[in-house]
Amino acid sequence: MDGLQALVDDIRREIATQTERGRVADYIPQLAAVDPGHFGIAITTVDGQEYVAGEADTAFSIQSVSKVFTLTLALGMVGDRLWNRVGREPSGTPFNSIVQLEREQGKPRNPFINAGAIAVADVLLAGHQPKEAIGEIVQFVRFLAGDDTIVIDDKVAHSETETGFRNVALAQFMRSFGKLDHPAEHVLGVYFHHCALAMTCRQLSRAGLFLAAGGRSPATGGTVVSPGRARRINALMLTCGHYDGSGDFAYRVGLPGKSGVGGGILVVAPGKASITVWSPGLNENGNSLLGSLALEMLAQRTGWSIFGA
Amino acid sequence: MDGLQALVDDIRREIATQTERGRVADYIPQLAAVDPGHFGIAITTVDGQEYVAGEADTAFSIQSVSKVFTLTLALGMVGDRLWNRVGREPSGTPFNSIVQLEREQGKPRNPFINAGAIAVADVLLAGHQPKEAIGEIVQFVRFLAGDDTIVIDDKVAHSETETGFRNVALAQFMRSFGKLDHPAEHVLGVYFHHCALAMTCRQLSRAGLFLAAGGRSPATGGTVVSPGRARRINALMLTCGHYDGSGDFAYRVGLPGKSGVGGGILVVAPGKASITVWSPGLNENGNSLLGSLALEMLAQRTGWSIFGA
Amino acid sequence: MDGLQALVDDIRREIATQTERGRVADYIPQLAAVDPGHFGIAITTVDGQEYVAGEADTAFSIQSVSKVFTLTLALGMVGDRLWNRVGREPSGTPFNSIVQLEREQGKPRNPFINAGAIAVADVLLAGHQPKEAIGEIVQFVRFLAGDDTIVIDDKVAHSETETGFRNVALAQFMRSFGKLDHPAEHVLGVYFHHCALAMTCRQLSRAGLFLAAGGRSPATGGTVVSPGRARRINALMLTCGHYDGSGDFAYRVGLPGKSGVGGGILVVAPGKASITVWSPGLNENGNSLLGSLALEMLAQRTGWSIFGA
Amino acid sequence: MDGLQALVDDIRREIATQTERGRVADYIPQLAAVDPGHFGIAITTVDGQEYVAGEADTAFSIQSVSKVFTLTLALGMVGDRLWNRVGREPSGTPFNSIVQLEREQGKPRNPFINAGAIAVADVLLAGHQPKEAIGEIVQFVRFLAGDDTIVIDDKVAHSETETGFRNVALAQFMRSFGKLDHPAEHVLGVYFHHCALAMTCRQLSRAGLFLAAGGRSPATGGTVVSPGRARRINALMLTCGHYDGSGDFAYRVGLPGKSGVGGGILVVAPGKASITVWSPGLNENGNSLLGSLALEMLAQRTGWSIFGA
């Protein structure tokens, strides 16, 4: 697939010509300070090849992309019982909406909106102190990426803790419905920290490759999850991975993916490759504007859309 | 693919053993009178083979499955301008909710909820009398299925017209926001009639085959839509095709599909086949209970999920 | 109370100096064409005195003020059973919101929002053709005002019928919940016609006087409603009479009242007088901007607030 | 008014015969443990007479009744600027709903729902430590009641702090919109403490008497608030004092009042008296079931309804 190197180079060049780059997330200083001009892309194929362009080795805050990994961990711990805690439906509302939580008595609609990921963090705390749970998440991501240098950006985690009032409200609200087993402070500690993981496009593509490879980790040959679970996680990414822009992303790109407000998007082309793009400017739904565009180009030129013949 | 005949036979047998069959839609007498014991399944492969079991040649009311065909027609008429009239996001609410319409000033979330299909019907009325628009829809479905015997069940259409107060409310509500170009009565006339199309599993599978075949009609060799449009319609079916159970259907079945309250579901396995199942009992989201289960079996045993490696 | 004549003259003069007059309702041509410069005020005391200023004898479209009279009639017909059909709570949403109707399964929050008045009109249709029900309402208002010249403005009623899509949606929506006994067209016919009553400030004050006089009609000496019912209607006007501005009106004016989008407001000072003001420009809640201000002045200078010592 | 003693005795007797007493609030152990059989009533007239029956001298947790006093204090501090922080409209939703806060960007609908009282507590913290603000509130209530023995029940305050997750969510949610000036913990500290004031019917009636007496404290002869402010606080109590049962209370009782989940209700008959009832069992809106009934009897027999002739 030599064409893929030319493809990522092309995409990088075309993205560089774009003048409208979206708005960088500004709710914490660490994200607000990021230059919107960054762009990186990395493709990791299931046969182990890598094709990168732009700043593919610059770490950024993966934010909500981390929810794919905590979901995988939680499913490994409690299996389908997870769905007693959180639904599997698109939310139809912004990522941090509290309205739906009231209507559904504290049960979040899916594991990728903030409330849902907070519920998942609560599951990961079972039998653990927050520090341990955070440690397990970091170890898991390092294992998936085959890279022990991956760390949490403590400044980001600290800023989120200081200013994440909306997430505190979500957690306390779920607590008020008896839907959290642990103190909201502990749960949020886990949540804010895993969102603060700093990774590069290359690392993130490697870490997500098992979802493209039927649940196996091509690097180690080991099984991360069963093929069925990999399929189902992909299905959740497709229907719920981009907040209230999930339908649009499926329509335009046609691949399961998960975005983060740091501007990263991890995408899975089942049987073919995992792909990560990074461009910090966001669209009105909180997803990377140019990252989405780059992936639309990629899907069009590779024909990797899961909806095609 | 001889295995497919054994597969549909197996599925029919296993479905026959199920005791919980869901609730038949009862808002009009014609649907309420349907025996919940019916079951049919038909697979049409892109190379023209057909595999059927059960009552695959018994006509049923396709109801909302027809929205796939009216969407295809409307996209053919106005292209992407359609998206000024209707969104592309899952709704997060029941199929006939009016709440979201108020929040979004009369613009429906997607073309598959009732309000969205009403907006699509309004588009199809451009330059036409209601009768003509209905005629065009019937002609299009006959052409797709290669079967001129397909007709609208007038009793069903009439009953809907008599009792579809909620849909009247949706249409009048959109009208109050200036979002309909034609009188609500005309738009609803078109909507109620296309929902009353009576088709068999075999006919419906044939009619939907172009979506599995990159937009071509394998029977005639002609192009119905471009490959890109077929992909995008499939994406919409995946994210929005089953009302507030779309996420669950994607999770369990992993194929784009569209359900109707008559108990039919049309599903697309891109590059492989179109499939239709019919079982009149519905689950709490208004989708065929055993039809969903049959498709879950089929996806599992064929490995056709679009989310798999 | 000779001071009252000076008071209404003063108020008229002060209102004339106001430059910000609000926005005239523009959803039908008949209302849109009304000059925002009109102003009238009439006080009718329980001992039969009248004090007027400005255009107190010019007829205007009373619109929702008519809901006080239809409520009174319906309570006379079915008594407290009315409250099975409609609630008694402020709505917390705009006058024509449909959201609450969905949450509460088609039961309107109170008889003064549009949906509630539509439910009341349905009650008034029992045993009647629409024309008869409308005739009874007109007769009742004429009787209350002691004035047989009061008529419905047919052009207004016709325009509402032509363009009142939102109200049609409300009625059909209630019908879909089984909450209307009669065809939506009939119910709306009654509703649109009573809203189109044309009355002067003087006529409206006279017609509302029974609510200030413990249920008696001071002119005839007859009893319109019991003292308890008069009190309770007044309570409903206080909590629900001004849509989502009811709290503000109670805070500023402190008297039970009912407003209409024609710019009229009928107000009751229990034991003292009924008052009507008319100024066509509306505030953001759909209540007369200068009419509210005039009543605030009046309440302040008379000390008639029901909340005072 | 010797009849008043007979009246309260009668009411006490009739209430004692009621078998349906409502449900005691059970979200904290201190309230859950209260015997639903308690009943007390106290009338304090503006000329200084007191009429009591039942357990009028037993202290109970006044809970939300305290919001009348904090509102009065806050208006004294910042005047009408308070209305930039909180609205004056009935909410149309339960007392602790978070939905409306999202729709209105963190501005509560009125000062008597939980979110609104939290905003008022934030105002009271200006220039103060939480302990000082709490101290001022206690001093103010002691001054109004002329009774230095009134204290906060620390166990109740502590329990609320431990389990009031919903209120924490409300405060954090408002904080996320930038609508609180102080840390949520401080604001909630003030809020939970003033709700934990323990008072008797007699003390509460005395403390609320200024609202019936045009703002003056009949005991001391001093002015607490201006007559206009007393009127306006009464208006707020009428439209918003009983959560989503405010309309019903106005309809049945016809007097401004404020209820608390401890089962107390303070009511104002302008120019005549303040009245307090206490019966711990609540109706479905969170207001004292038998307390409301007792007040309905009282209003009926005294003719004190503000809506009457």
Task: Report a brief summary of the structure.
Four copies of one chain form a homotetramer. Chain A has helices spanning 3-16, 29-32, 66-78, 99-103, 114-124, 130-145, 154-163, 165-176, 184-195, 201-212, 227-240, 246-252, 289-302, and strands spanning 23-24, 40-45, 50-54, 60-61, 151-152, 197-199, 257-259, 264-269, 273-278, 281-282.
Walkthrough of the structure:
4 copies of one chain form a homotetramer. In chain A, strand 8 (264-269) and strand 9 form a beta hairpin. The model of chain A has no long low-confidence stretch (mean pLDDT 94). The first copy, chain A, has 2 domains: 3-60 and 199-302, DD-peptidase/beta-lactamase superfamily (Beta-lactamase); 64-197, DD-peptidase/beta-lactamase superfamily (Beta-lactamase), CATH 3.40.710. A 5-stranded antiparallel sheet of chain A has the order 3-2-9-8-7. In chain A, strands 4-6-5 form a 3-stranded antiparallel sheet. A two-stranded antiparallel sheet of chain A has the order 1-10. The radius of gyration of chain A is 18 Å and the shape is globular. Helices cover 47% and strands 12% of the residues of chain A. Chain A is of the alpha+beta class and 309 residues long. Chain A has helices at 3-16, 29-32, 66-78, 99-103, 114-124, 130-145, 154-163, 165-176, 184-195, 201-212, 227-240, 246-252, 289-302; strands spanning 23-24, 40-45, 50-54, 60-61, 151-152, 197-199, 257-259, 264-269, 273-278, 281-282.
